[in-house]
Amino acid sequence: MTDKRPTLSLKPKTGPAADRRATGKVGRNPAAAGPARGQGGHGKPGPGATGQPRPGNPDQRPVGKPPRVQGGDFPGHQARAQREAREDTAAPRLRQSHEVKVAPQRDFRPDLKSDSLALALLGAANAVARVRAGSALPQALAGVFAAYDATPQARGAIQDIAYRTMRQLGRSETLLGLMTSKAPEPPMLAGLLAAALSLLDTPEGQPAPYEAFTVVDQAVSAAAAHPDFAHAKAMVNAVLRRFLRERAGLVEEALREPLARFNYPQWWIDTMRAAYPRDWEAVLAAGNVHPPLTLRVNARKSDVGAYLQTLSDAGLQAEQVGPGAVRLAQAINVAQIPGFAEGVVSVQDAGAQLAAPLLDLRDGMRVLDACAAPGGKSGHILETADVQLTSVDADPARLARVGDNLGRLGLDATLLAADAGSRDWWDGRQYDRILADVPCTASGIVRRHPDIRWLRRKSDTSQLATLSSKILDNLWQMLLPDGKLLFVTCSLWPQESEAQAAAFAARHDAVRLDAPGQLLPLGGAGQDHDGLFYALFQKKAA
Fold first, then answer.
1. How many Cβ atoms sit within 10 Å of the Cβ of residue 336?
2. What is the set of active-site residues?
3. pLDDT reported for residue 500
4. CA geometry: angle at 187 spanning 93 and 89, to 5°?
């Protein structure tokens, strides 16, 4: 029998949303009774609109503590608390709770049907809670799949909802801040509510993936199935039903906060606006959509024209988006991609496919791919020319993925688990070409990894830029005179990209050659790629 613990209460229906409803300006939303079933989006959060951080991000804390109107460290509550404190400095304060919190049972296996939406919601909630604790979403999902012994069908559903939740987390948390008196505890309960809201509160123009009553019913079942918050199933029901009743007013009020409007931490929004004053909103919006499935055709085994015909024969629509790049109209599992198992194609973003051609490869060259995992660029290098490739990565587990990818392509390279910032592994022979895809905040691939925005801190940018600078300086010593080094980063922050490139060229008197520079992920024709940065350098002859 579950022990009874204090739980949060619904916030009284006061404020703009309730006031409008009371005066007849906000009526019952007809769509709340049951939106039409449709296909939802598929699915590498955080600080509130006022810039306050999620616990564990001390670098983002403002100087001085703002007034707290309601309890909890939930970003949605923080944003609301500061707003209400400004409106009424005499607002009552809840007494701080001194309840001893029990460690969450994240590995608890619920007694739910493997194909049920309830299991998928609970699994997604579990993954969200793990991300809040600092895990990357792929690792969080792997932990959930193992704990639940999830079937392939359940894995797909859990992953879909988890990614959807991450993309909408700022908006969902702000809505919860409007509807509840304090942050939901434990974190899995907050994750469950956010996951359910992501299915009920679909982005404008997108159909709802499930009927509203089904989402509410299954969310309540999910809560009842977990011993940590079974006592809160009535609250889950009340919160979700209140959202359906007052959707229009709640969403209108939530969207006044940047956290809800853009679904990014405030520091991220501010940094983007400063770096790209004309395009910042478009870049933020592009990071909230599901990325396309882009393939690289292996020139050793086929060409774009022949492969497009293969796709057409299989009933799959696609188009060419680069010299060797094909984008599928509809994403499918890699196991269903014609020729994938045989190495005819690989999954690789159109922007990432620029690396190998920029290296100007010729047969017989000695080439180094530093920071090589997961191996997409290593494979492309070997498809482009017969070179002697050494692929280095500091993480042995990730390096194993390089070997797996090359094995599928039928290609070979020397794999070294080593630190690209040291020389312990280097044999002293210089390379003709070096690809330096250095560590960064990964702010340019947030549409593929929506958890990044909630895991990163503002201070990470300078720390990673310092690490990357060390790696670049080290690799430059391994390059032959007249050789070329391609600096690549998947960051949108100038400190990690253009400023890094300019400083590197000045330190080493390197010749800077033509390269794309910063690619902005704006979406649309010709720009449906990740946010990568390219700078190409040549070492002067001795």
1. 9
2. 490
3. 97
4. 20
